[in-house]
């Protein structure tokens, strides 16, 4: 009976523990916090080391380790196992090994992942049994335990943290939708971050597809030695496999959908829909179902999400914009009169990319840990400590025709647990105002 250690007892960690226990492994689960489910897990035959990481964990010989993707490799406990050469995986890799009848459409990239994954899932649902997992939806191990003997199509969003723990994972179709600086608080360098994204296709079979964004020079630079069929796509060119022409999206000579049927706005969302449609086509979804799903799809929560209007002022929640690339996409969706709420935890990424929107931003109200940095980006900038104070300041300056946009360009960890909490609180504050 192989002994395995799981570091991190969030939902994905517990799911991995249960799946591995089901398949005969001796499982130990450790977490820095005390677990409410401690007795329940012990009753299931899982050893629990909570409230810290005891020394004996380092003294045992583990067959392999499953690490929560959010825990950096530089954390002392993890670093010690890296130095010992113990294999370290993420729960997606573990699930892949047991759910052998799942077919994967795998999505990674800096921005747009959640929209593409959600839209792909809606397309796959129209075909039949489909699941959504990874960074959104359920932990893949939870679904593997429930459906491992069944055939399922899976829309799978993957962060680079998850890809770092992959060894065998092989998708039917995959994409790196774009690349931009991010996660310098986790990765040793930008080069390491970009290279980690390319692990998505490393085990792809020859008949699998990898969608390559030829508009992105970083992808062209890093996407090398691709072992499967390459589908080049572009929003600017038509001499590629997947492209726009005459207001429609085409895969070679097959028309996938008409752009004017989309409810989601902005060129970047056209690109997101293009990617999802092509992936769905490779996974066997009919053109009619692709078009119906694309036409009915509305925005993802916390991604340029319209909240409402008061006195001619529109409010948008783009809390998922945790880097400048995502914030730039939101700012490009409005021609002028933007009152921008930005700021949060400092990930070590410069904000210079946002200077090109200075003429569109009527006022930036910056808050949080990085608030002072935005004074060098926008001509008109006011700093406030909290998001609530920033919203109050924005409303005081707003006039009919303005847009109040929360698009922080930073992660949320200075004042919130995650971007979802930040977005929910922002929406609640706006609705109270409305």
Keywords:
21% strand, 434 residues, six-stranded parallel β-sheet, UDP-N-acetylmuramoyl-L-alanine:D-glutamate ligase, single chain, Mur_ligase_cen, Protein-Tyrosine Phosphatase, Chain A, Rossmann fold, alpha/beta, six-stranded mixed β-sheet, 15 helices
Quick summary:
Residues 302-410 form the Mur ligase C-terminal domain. Pfam families: Mur_ligase_C (PF02875), Mur_ligase_M (PF08245), MurD-like_N (PF21799). This protein is α/β, with parallel strands linked by helices and 434 residues long.
Mean pLDDT: 93
The Rg value, from CA coordinates, equals: 22 Å
Q: Using the alpha-carbon principal axes, give the shape.
A: globular
Low-confidence stretches: none
Number of domains: 3
Biggest beta-sheet profile: 6 strands, parallel
Look up the CATH topology of the largest domain: UDP-N-acetylmuramoyl-L-alanine:D-glutamate ligase
Domain Mur ligase C-terminal: 302-410
Keywords: ATP-binding, Cell cycle, Cell division, Cell shape, Cell wall biogenesis/degradation, Cytoplasm, Ligase, Nucleotide-binding, Peptidoglycan synthesis
Catalytic activity: UDP-N-acetyl-alpha-D-muramoyl-L-alanine + D-glutamate + ATP = UDP-N-acetyl-alpha-D-muramoyl-L-alanyl-D-glutamate + ADP + phosphate + H(+)
Pathway: Cell wall biogenesis; peptidoglycan biosynthesis
Notes on the protein architecture:
The chain is built from 15 helices and 20 strands. It has helices at 11-22, 38-43, 56-59, 76-84, 91-98, 113-127, 140-147, 160-163, 190-197, 217-222, 267-282, 287-296, 324-331, 387-397, 419-433; strands spanning 3-7, 26-30, 47-49, 64-67, 88-89, 102-108, 130-134, 152-157, 173-176, 209-213, 229-233, 242-245, 248-251, 254-258, 305-310, 313-317, 338-342, 361-366, 381-383, 403-406. Helix 9 (190-197) links the parallel strand 9 and strand 10. The longest helix has 16 residues, at 267-282. The chain is globular and about 65 Å long. With 434 residues, the protein is α/β, with parallel strands linked by helices. Helix 6 (113-127) packs parallel to helix 11 and helix 6 (113-127) packs across helix 12. The strands form 4 sheets. The chain has a 6-stranded parallel beta sheet with strand order 7-8-6-9-10-11, with helices on both faces. Strands 15-16-20-17-18-19 form a 6-stranded mixed beta sheet, covered by helices on one side. It has 3 domains: 3-89, NAD(P)-binding Rossmann-like Domain (Rossmann fold), CATH 3.40.50; 92-296, 3-Layer(aba) Sandwich (UDP-N-acetylmuramoyl-L-alanine:D-glutamate ligase), CATH 3.40.1190.10; 305-433, Alpha-Beta Complex (Protein-Tyrosine Phosphatase, Chain A), CATH 3.90.190.20. Pfam families: Mur_ligase_C, Mur_ligase_M, MurD-like_N.
């Amino acid at each position: 009976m192989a002994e395995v250690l799981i570091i991190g007892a969030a939902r994905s960690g517990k799911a991995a523990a249960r799946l591995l226990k089901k398949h005969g492994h001796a499982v130990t689960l450790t977490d820095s916090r005390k677990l409410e489910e401690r007795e329940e897990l012990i009753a299931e035959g899982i050893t629990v080391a909570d409230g810290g990481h005891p020394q004996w964990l380092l003294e045992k010989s583990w067959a392999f380790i499953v690490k929560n993707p959010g825990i950096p490799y530089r954390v002392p406990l993890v670093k010690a196992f890296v130095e010992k050469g113990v294999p370290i995986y993420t729960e997606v890799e573990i699930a892949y090994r047991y759910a052998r009848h799942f077919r994967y459409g795998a999505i990674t990239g800096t921005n747009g992942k959640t929209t593409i994954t959600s839209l792909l899932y809606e397309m796959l649902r129209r075909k039949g049994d489909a699941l959504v997992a990874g960074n959104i939806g359920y932990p893949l191990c939870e679904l593997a335990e429930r459906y491992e003997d069944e055939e399922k199509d899976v829309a799978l969003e993957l962060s680079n943290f998850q890809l770092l723990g992959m060894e065998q994972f092989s998708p039917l179709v995959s994409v790196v939708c774009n690349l931009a600086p991010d996660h310098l608080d986790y990765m040793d360098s930008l080069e390491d971050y970009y290279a980690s994204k390319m692990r998505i296709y490393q085990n792809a079979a020859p008949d699998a597809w990898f969608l390559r964004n030829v508009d992105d020079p970083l992808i062209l630079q890093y996407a090398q030695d691709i072992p499967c069929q390459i589908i080049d796509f572009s929003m600017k060119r038509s001499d590629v496999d997947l492209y726009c022409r005459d207001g429609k999206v085409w895969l070679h000579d097959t028309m996938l959908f008409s752009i004017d049927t989309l409810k989601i706005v902005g060129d970047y969302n056209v690109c997101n829909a293009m990617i999802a449609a092509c992936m769905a086509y490779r996974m066997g979804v009919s053109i009619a179902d692709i078009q119906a799903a694309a036409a009915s799809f509305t925005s993802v929560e916390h991604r340029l999400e319209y909240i409402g209007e008061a006195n001619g002022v529109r409010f948008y929640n783009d809390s998922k914009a945790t880097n400048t690339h995502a914030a730039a996409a939101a700012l490009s969706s409005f021609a002028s009169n933007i009152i921008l709420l930005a700021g949060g935890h400092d990930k070590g990424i410069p904000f210079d990319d946002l200077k090109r929107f200075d003429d569109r931003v009527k006022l930036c109200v910056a808050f949080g840990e990085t608030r002072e940095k935005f004074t060098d980006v926008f001509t008109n900038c006011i700093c406030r400590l909290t998001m609530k104070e920033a919203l109050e300041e924005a409303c005081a300056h707003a006039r009919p025709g303005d847009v109040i946009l929360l698009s922080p360009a930073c992660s949320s960890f200075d004042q919130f647990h995650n971007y979802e909490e930040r977005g929910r609180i922002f929406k609640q504050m706006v609705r109270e105002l409305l």
